[in-house]
# Entry
Amino acid sequence: MRKVLFGKLGKPGKMLPLLVVLALIMSLSPLAAFAADRGEWAPNVSYAINDTVTYGGKTYKTVQSHTSLTGWEPPNVPALWALVQGGGGGGGDTTAPTAPTNLTVSGVTASSVALSWSASTDNVGVTGYDVYQGASVALSVTGTTATVTGLAANTTYSFKVVAKDAAGNRSPASATVNATTTGSGGGGGGGQLPKHTLTGYWHNFDNNSINLRVSDVSEKYDIIVLSFAELNPAKPGGVTFSVDPTLSSTLGGYSNADLIADIQAKRAQGKKVIISIGGEKGNIDLNSASPNVTNFVDSMYDIITQFGLDGVDIDLEHGMNVTNLTNAIRQLQQRVGSDFILTMAPQTIDMQNPNTSYMQLYNNLKDITSVINVQYYNSGCMLGRDGKCYSQGTIDFLTALSDLTLQWVSPSQLGIGVPATSSAAGGGYVSPTVVNNALNCLATGNSCGSYKPVAKYPDIRGAMTWSINWDATNNYNLANTVKPFLLTLP
# Structure
């Protein structure tokens, strides 16, 4: 086609008019091919850079390609969406929001106070809340919950909340509430865990790392997470678990009985061994309450009982039904008992604001949660507490994003998740020394990079790595470096 077209151009004098016509046609071509208007925002949709959507009467533009999930609405994740100026909102609004009501203390630790309140209303829309500790703003949030951290033990504090809108109007303050911190640290859930823990994932599959029996796992790991339970397609909500046949073969016939014996030996050493649901490709089916929740609880309890496990890790990366999962975990914990260990491994994007599905789940289960190990890898650039975008694979990424999450999660329940080697993830690897520096920065204010956390968090729970198997390829460099350092923290 191209050869014929230019073959007919003939003499040079005829070329200019034709080029003008072609340029005019191209100028009238739709721009949607380059930046699509995708209409109203919706979950489970793939958005490309510069796509535009509407949400809450405003227009937003994609700044990072992604597939949307519930909780990632444009106002909630500025790392993914930018408000288009002139795309709705603003414009002479002088009406202040109503005062927040029902301010309540929902939890306390030795160094933090969790608060919740009823939402304010506004003629245009509430954009956020300032939480006051005494006369000063302790933090600003977009949802109706907040956790003020960095407090002293056995001390009484007063709090109030003020709502604000996009035009800068501020509401009257809520009623003031008082809260007294406890006398010692420690997270919720689980028994006999060290104050600062090291968590690692064990592969129940064969890949390019080292295949390991659980008995070969380094004694430096406090929590060993078996990866992963599998969805049972024949039983809605149900899951299954056994030693992977290929892994069994490569380990010379490693059986369920061998795994059970190894687990019991680790537990006798004071280690906790739990089972993970989810992973990069895995999922569970709790979209319906019945019979899915019962099937999940029954099958998980059978696995925990058969293998002698201590609890469950939630590593769901493809969305979740928060209500049904909350109900299921509550029932499972009640059947297992008070020593039940519950950990979570949200992706970085899942902790960018207090309204995500993971934060809803945490708020529902914080009293039995041992640790949330945020996956600070495969993330790209993400927003820290100061609103700046930090690149993964740096100490500032680890500290600025942890500081952001520590507005909503107790320090005693937050861990830094990192790849054990550069081969273990697509991006985000840092050396174990950098992990120690980040932990030291958060706990004591020392060894920081350019980012300085707003407070010291001596109760910071610890670190997690994907994975034990990848760490083994490097002679357990991460475990041998990080675990001894955890023992030096306050």
In short: Residues 1-33 have pLDDT under 50 and may be disordered. The chain has three domains: 1-88, 101-180, 197-486.
